[in-house]
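Interim report to the steering committee. The following record documents the input for Undecaprenyl-diphosphatase (266 residues).
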Amino acid sequence: MPIILLVIILGIVEGVTEYLPVSSTGHLILATELLGYDADKWALFNIAIQPGAILAILVLYWKTFRDVLIGLWKREPSAFAFVRNLLVAFIPAVAIGLAIGDSIELLLGNAMVVAVALILGGFAILVVEKLAKPTDRGGVANVTLGHSIGIGLIQCLAMIPGVSRSGATILGAMAMGVDRKTAAEFSFFLAVPTLSGATALQLYKHGSTMEPGMGSWILLGSLVSFVVAVVVVKAFVSIIQRYGFAPFAWYRIIAGSAALIWLAAR
């Protein structure tokens, strides 16, 4: 397969899965393996194309970010609460990532870990969907400080490939009483500092090892992921408000089971 086609496919996978509770990292690892490439060698690429997905959130929610900036200038309490909640939710990922990041990287090419995590995560979603009773409503700024800290801690589970950063944060928020729409938007906004930090760290640590031409591949992959993510995020909010997260749970269980069978048969 031509490298450019692989780059486009991985960009599509990133754009489709980054904000869905299905694990973008897990899908990128499985897609790379399925297409016959070494997942370890493409691990840096898979992380480095995340800026495309980040840009999608900045574009789709530009009015929200604009209003927060204006609110900070005017010293509005809601704007400060918005920033505070995202900052305290971001800090645990920074601390744990710096502390055990090298150990986590060893899992980034392990397709078996991904398959098992997909299945377990699917069942976790079904349980939370059944038991969650939303009490906090009204946007990210209205989420309590305690819940924001809890969401940040739960996000760290997504360092295990296959768990899903968006799934962990959304379902963790719902388990603490945050309504579906607010939980999803909290996850979207939290992705901006989290993915930016992860990308910057990986490029700093491994940028010198990039193969010739990978910079161009990363730009193309980021562009593809941006376009796809813009479409997917819009649809995702409508789907969860109408059908909940159960469709994604069953998808995870089926995809994880299929991956286990495929890996065992190789």
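The longest helix spans residues 214-243. The committee is asked to note this result when reviewing the revised timeline.
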